Amino acid sequence: AVTVGEHGVYHVELARPEMRNAMNWRFWSELRQVFDALAQDAECRAIVLSARGKSFSAGLDLTDAGNMPPPAEDPARQGLRFIKHLTVMQDGVTAVENCLKPTIVAVQGACVGAGVDLITACDVRLCSADAFFCIKEAAVGLAADVGTLARLPKIVGNDSIVRELALTARDCPADEAKSFGLVSRVLPSQEEAIRAAKAIAQQIAELSPVAIVGTKKNLNFARDHTVAESLDYVKTWNACMLQTQDFQKAIAASLKKAKPAFSKL
């Protein structure tokens, strides 16, 4: 579900509370469609992601046969179908990361398996005190393959805890998640976590949208490249983007101690 809020803040919700927001096959294409659309929406400046019900997500919906690749006549063709099938799932989560409108996620209750894949593609992670996180895949006979193993080590910068959680498939409570940087804040309740996420999104939405998309683009680039490459990239980026009127507007407003008003993208 997508709700258009004030000042360019959009609210995206996982809306299968009766299934603990387990992710069926339809979910992956819808996730990509939503975030690709928001990436192109000139009105959208920041996104809050949350889930209805008591759990953020129970992970992959194992009751949906669509989540399994269709059978093939031999192992080679089965492998190729699996790759194609998994790419749809990976691309759904990657759409969140590729959308240059920042996403602030508020997690409550269980965040398991594919739920962890999803939140690692977000920019800011908050949770309620009852939240817990579990990289469940090893317990059901596979390696996590939709993003957690690729993104989590770069988020928390603690190889030991990443390996412990991925290899044991144990639950990680909210306070522990905050201690190693998976989440930046723990709030007393789901409602307060969503409220805090909206407040962060509102702060972002008040700033220059040119500056915001540029900041996220360069943070993503820096994560995957060397310092020298990242410095060179941001030089080229700002050689173009500093020609925006937003820069002059922000400076003028600062001198007048006023709040600048920026045009939509």
Explain how this protein is built.
α1 (25-40) runs parallel beside α2 and α8 packs antiparallel against α9 (227-241). The chain has helices spanning 25-40, 75-98, 114-119, 148-156, 159-168, 174-179, 190-205, 209-223, 227-241, 245-255, and strands spanning 2-4, 9-14, 46-51, 103-107, 110-112, 124-128, 132-134, 172-173, 185-187. 48% of the residues lie in helices and 14% in strands. The strands form two sheets. A six-stranded mixed beta sheet has the order 1-2-3-4-6-9. Strands 5-7-8 form a three-stranded mixed beta sheet. By secondary structure, the protein is an alpha/beta fold. The protein has ten helices and nine strands.
Which key features would you list for this structure?
265 residues, alpha/beta, 6-stranded mixed β-sheet, 3-stranded mixed β-sheet, 10 helices, 9 strands, globular
